[in-house]
Amino acid sequence: MTGENADEGTTDDGARERAAPGIADALKELGDTGRATWAAGREAATAFRILFTADVSLARSAFGRTLALTALAIVFGASAWLLLMAALIAWLSINLGWAWWFSLLLTGGASLVIAALAGWLGMRYFEHTRFKATRRQLARLGIGELADMMPSAGSGKSAEQGAEEVAEKTNGGAKKKGLGVDVTPP
C-alpha cells in the first residue's frame, strides 16, 4: 500500500476494505431477518385465512343451492307432477284406449326419470363442499392425508398440477389409506 492509499482505506486495486462486523451489527441483522420472517409468515397466514374463508363461503353457497334444488324437486314432484300424471293417465286411457295399468306404468317411469335427473343435478353441487383448494395448499405444507401425493411448498409445480398428476396416476380412482379407506382426491 502506498501512503495515499493507506489514508483512504483502499487497496492497490481500488476496492474498499470492509471491516468485520461487530456483534452488535450481527445482532441487528439477525433481528431484521427475524422481523422479515415474522412478516412473511403473517402474510402467508393471512393468505391462507382468506383462502379458507373463500372455501367455506363456496361450500356454504353450494350446500344452500343443493338444499334449494332438492326442495324444488320435492315440491314439484309432490304437487304439480301428480296432477299432470293423473291428467296424462286419463288421456292415455280414454282417448288412446290404452289399459289403465299401461298408462300408470308409463307415467311412473317418466316420474322416476325426472326425479333421478333432479337428484343428479342436486348432487353435482356437493362437489364444491370438499374444500379442494384448501386441502391442496395444506398438502403442500405437509399437512393432511394428501401430503404424500402433492408437490412440496418449495417446488415449482402448482398444487393444481399436482392434483392433476394424482388423478392421472390413480386413473380417476380413489387412493387408499393405510387401512384401506378411500382418500378423497384433491
UniProtKB/TrEMBL annotation:
Disordered as annotated region, ranges: 151-186
Species: Noviluteimonas lactosilytica
Keyword field: Membrane, Transmembrane, Transmembrane helix
Name of the protein: Phage holin family protein
Keyword presence, Transmembrane helix: yes
Segments passing through the bilayer: 67-92, 98-122
